């Protein structure tokens, strides 16, 4: 027996009516019907009978209320109460979470082997990357000691090998070249600023920036650097590193060419001096590169040894011995490393007067170092099933850079090659880094002067070969382009900007392009017209599916994305283009006194249903435009209905007065698209509708 809706004195349907009706009329019947397509005819069918709900009626029926937000001081108080001393200590010192579970019998041996292997890699890479940063070679070994110990205490990654990193080193090297030399301030006496003073000042500023980012909870800001951007940027930076090593590979001495257009200027200088190359340096460089490539491409691939052969250290020791006993520097003018002091550096304050000048140069260093380190940490954490704290990583790296700047260190980061080796040989925790630091302390205290005769061309060969992984990232361009041409364009433009202009300019270009991609993609959301699958409440894209039902006088427009001040105009234009209507011109034409429909099609559209099930957000500016658009369509005698809005969107509609008055709202809002279609059909054919006042019964038949 059909129920009639009970109405209150104000004319609004009693909310309890819908609850009772839903309880009485919802039924699920499994039958052997033959409705639907041939493929689905043998499947059991589902029939649901329920009221047609407007959103406000459903809210009243089921007493919708917006969750109350906890006041800020209450929220902070609750958080403080939940923190105990143990939680606080484990958050600040993440090693307290894994150290109690550490198996000294099983894991210590793996960490010992891993630590010794990584320590061996630290020596040649530290010396070589220090030269990239234009600072004394021993600084690279300092960076494998002081910042690493700080990271051991505060870092959350158990497998990252921290220390020198090629890209960061060359970025610091650009700043060192720009600010090293004789300076005068305010006409006073001139003073000589050393490369180490500039590098340590950069390290201190980078550390302070990372600590400030940690306090502001900006750990996730690294995700502004997309995989496409990082790939293009690091590949371009690798080109810079290779270019910077060519002078040592050829035994040339090149003048400073500045940071802008550096690669182009460097190659111009190389070709000018090509007749002055040192053939002895070329031969040594070629032998070093061939031996390293043979080891990496044949021995490692063939897995001839369980423990990786420390070929870089072997090359360093062999080059040092040959240079010393064959007197390569005296007889063939081979450039060597030079003085390497013994002992640990005495703590000293960075040059604070330089810091205001290097803030802009330090920011990309802070971002790149943190992003690369977190990216590597996430890879290992996913493999080993543990969590990474983004803000804690900022704190660990910031503290490491600040402490390191007092001990002659420039900014540190995770090394891609060393981290991979540390993990592949079985390293379990950062105890491997502590073991590595212990071995490097011996080198710093007693062994350092042994490497003074080492030819620079040997180190250049080691650096160039180690960059193969970064250089081969160029092969990723094809994949990025296949996934999205826009991503491919970002990669190409970022790479070209880094190579053609400068590293920091390229990073800025890449970030701007990535943000622009997000912006422009939001301006081109997915939209379509929907049609109904027969005997169901399913609505699909008419341009992608065939056999759909499109009801006369009704159009259903689906919008996927956000509506805001930036996208509101694009939304309106896309809607009008899809419907084939020039809204402004059509309104002007219909306002003319002699206007008459030129065809029956001009008056065919009566209801426009906007499917907002995928509308993520809407702001007041977009709602204002939406109100005006509703009134414009009313002038064309077209009623707009909205459907499927999420609760936050509905709340914004209520606050801005788009809905709320059931009797005369700007537009009616329905729970689902099918409810809106049923309402529109009942308005177009009131005789055939089950009831009025929005309580039409909807019968839906679909396949189980």
UniProtKB/TrEMBL annotation:
> GO biological process annotations for this chain's record?
transmembrane transport
Keyword Transmembrane in annotation: yes
Stored InterPro entries: SLC26A/SulP_dom, SLC26A/SulP_fam, STAS_dom, STAS_dom_sf
Work out whether the entry's keyword set contains Heme: no
Q: Which keywords does UniProt give here? A: Membrane, Transmembrane, Transmembrane helix
Spell out the Gene3D superfamilies in the cross-references: STAS domain
Compartment(s): Membrane
Looking at the record, the residues that make up the STAS domain are 544-680
Q: Which CDD domains match?
A: STAS_SulP_like_sulfate_transporter (cd07042)
Query: What membrane topology does the annotation report for this chain?
Result: Multi-pass membrane protein
Question: What stretches pass through the bilayer?
Answer: 131-154, 160-182, 194-213, 219-242, 274-294, 306-326, 358-381, 393-416, 431-451, 458-477, 489-520
Under the heading SUPFAM superfamilies, the entry gives: SpoIIaa-like
Q: Per the record, what is one GO cellular component? A: membrane
Name of the protein in question: Sulfate transporter
